[in-house]
Write a structure and sequence with these properties.
Elements lengths: L4 E5 L6 E2 H7 L6 H9 L3 E3 L2 E2 L6 E2 L4 E4 L2 E5 L1
Parallel strand pairs: 1-7
Antiparallel strand pairs: 2-5, 3-4, 3-6, 6-7
Length: 73
């Protein structure tokens, strides 16, 4: 069963880098782990696989990793 856990992240500023978002939300314990899962293609931004570690995530976008979905507000 693939239940998705929904999270909401309140963005302060224009954007946050993808690896920082994964770390700050606790989905990855370290920046190194976040870089690894992104480079392996395990993270999606707006339902598209994302391989850029420094991808800028902005308000209104959704990030998915494993069974978690983060809505950036």
């Amino acid at each position: 069963m693939n239940d998705i856990t929904e999270h909401e992240f309140e963005l302060e500023g224009e954007f946050i880098e993808l690896i920082k978002l994964l770390k700050i939300t606790g989905l990855c314990q370290t920046g190194g782990h976040a870089k690894m899962v992104v480079s392996e293609g395990r993270v999606k931004v707006d339902s598209e696989s994302e391989l850029r570690k420094k991808r800028k995530v902005r308000k209104g976008q959704t990030v998915e990793f494993e069974n978690h979905r983060i809505r950036v507000v």
